Amino acid sequence: MTNPDSTDDIRQIQSVMDTYIEGGRTGSVDTLRPIFHELATICGHVGPDLFAQPIEQFYDWHQENGPAADLEAGAIRIDIEGTAATVRIELHNWNGHRFTDFFTLVRIEGRWQIMSKVFYLHAE
Predict the structure, then answer these.
(1) Alpha carbon distances (Å) from 73 to 15, 17, 19, 43, 53
(2) N or C: which end of the chain has fewer CB within 10 A?
(3) Class of residue 73 by CB neighbours under 10 A (exposed 0-12, middle 13-18, buried 19+)
């Protein structure tokens, strides 16, 4: 963490990530929507295919795959500089898949929102 005075920002970003994990476990797009900016994007490979789309495509995938009730999150790494932040999180058993997710967040009008999600889907 680059700013030792960012305790409140860390708490807020941790809350965003907790909401993300809860949205995964419950399968609720309505839980996920508020933490992503409307212009957010998602990008990563699914097998050999590049999946690079507006965040709506993630919502569609999430609805198709349903709740990941057994989802487990590993350590969350947060780095903040002013109104920009990055987060790295390991996710295990998202409906049988393991992901490493990287997020960029921006504080907009005092609220942290995810602007992009880049993921790595580990081989099964």
Answers:
(1) 14, 10, 12, 20, 24
(2) C
(3) middle
Q: Are 33 and 109 in contact (CB under 8 A)?
A: no
pLDDT along the chain (124 residues), means of 10: 70 97 96 97 95 95 93 95 97 95 97 98 92
Residue ranges covered by each domain of the chain: 7-121
- Do strands 97-108 and 111-121 pair parallel, antiparallel, or not at all (unpaired)? antiparallel
Architecture of domain 7-121: Roll (3.10)
DSSP code of residue 35: G
Phi and psi angles of residue 66, each rounded to the nearest 5 degrees, phi first: 75, -175
pTM (2 d.p.):
0.91
| C-alpha distance from residue 16 to each of 33, 49, 51, 105, 107 (Å) | 11, 29, 23, 10, 12
pLDDT tens profile 45-77: 999 999 999 999 999 999 998 999 999 999 899
